[in-house]
Amino acid sequence: MRLISLTAIAAITAFPLFAHADDRIEDALEARHGYMTMLAINMGTLAGMAKGEIEYDEAAASTAGANIEALGNYAVSDLFIEGTANGEVDDSDALPAIWENPDDFVQKFADLGEAAAGAGEAVKGGQANVGPVVQKLGGTCKVCHDDYRKKD
Amino acid sequence: MAEDQARRVRIWDPALRAFHWLLALLVVANWLLGKFGPNIMTLHFWLGYSIVALLAFRLIWGIIGPESARFSSLFHHPRSVTGYLRDMVKREPSHWPGHNPLGALAVIAMLLVLIWQVGTGLIADPEDFVNVGPLANKVGSDIATKADAWHALGADLILIFVLMHIAAILFYRIWKNEDLIRPMLTGWKWVRRR
Ligand code: HEM
Q1: ∠ at Cα A20 (A14, A22), nearest 5°?
Q2: Cβ partners under 8 Å of residue A148, min gap 6
Q3: How does it sit in the membrane (chain B) (predicted)?
């Protein structure tokens, strides 16, 4: 009896903790998916212009470049909290390798930030300037996805 | 007894041999480029297109090429496969003219996995905005991102098939004392009519 009530009390007091943990996990997942989607949207604009599928527009290109630059400064690795690897929660393609090589993972985000530095300016001055920026940025997406994102 | 005598016969035509060695070279090179090559995969794409051309040639050659290259000589009755399997462990050369029933299955499997590989590569979207397959926007982003995973799966299958292929050649060379490499270089092979 004592054991049961103790368990019950423990469960009740712990419940908000669990609930809280759940929120944290869901927020982190949602935020980092949103983060990646924002990268993709802006990369889509630049890649489209580089290929000539979207007409070059200096202001739009510069905004997209500056957006990626801003995202490159965001400490997104903080969103990869414990317990959010692929297999631990639904809807995560983040490989456990992230938590085994945290320094390398942070470094790969830093590489993105570095590639993004000055992107808003670099894409100005003509369509021909967009391609090299897309390649530099896209390479950093690939390198990280190769090691840390599950393909599916 | 004369029927049992092995004769030296020109079994592989020059086009097929050129196809074989070019394909081997390009597939290995493209596999390595895929895994370890530069982040901007331009070369991987170009070698991939060359492999598409080689596969197209092989499909045509399977219809209009010489006897040993024909698809009709690739498809054997299941019973001849089991029959061949039974005799395979014998320590003697097979002297088989062309693709033996088991080897033919391997050829079909390898051609299919390569067609799968170029097909998925052409429509793959790895969401990095640089290495996007040229036909990815034709199939929709759902399939295109899946195709990227299918392409990685295909790469694993290719590794397995290539290793099995080499193991089989070694098995014939060492266990059965039959050199299968030279015929694919010169075209001439010791065969017995069946
Ligand atoms: C037989 C021919 C081919 C072979 C052996 C091959 C092999 C590979 C390998 C090993 C990878 C790396 C997969 C991994 O991450 O584990 C790869 C990736 C890739 N290949 Fe191919 N490939 C071939 C043909 C093609 C073709 C024809 C195209 C498109 C034109 C293509 C486009 C791609 C793309 C877009 C990736 C994805 C890169 C990424 O996910 O970061 N491949 N390939």
Answers
A1: 105
A2: A94, A95, A97, A98, A105, A108
A3: Multi-pass membrane protein
Does B130 contact chain A (CB < 8 Å)? Answer: yes
Q: Is B33 in the pocket of ligand 1 (CB under 6 A)?
A: no
pLDDT digits (tens, 9 = 90+) for B118-168: 999 999 999 999 999 999 999 999 999 999 999 999 999 999 999 999 999
What domains can you pick out in chain A, each with its CATH number?
23-148 (1.20.120.10)
Assess whether the C-beta atom of B178 lies below 6 angstroms from ligand 1: no
Among the listed residues B129, B93, B118, the one whose alpha carbon sits nearest the alpha carbon of residue A140: B129
DSSP for B78-133, written as a single string = HHHHHHHHHHHTSSS----SSS-HHHHHHHHHHHHHHHHHHHHHHH---SSSSS--
Token reading at B78: 């299941």
* Amino acid at site B30: N
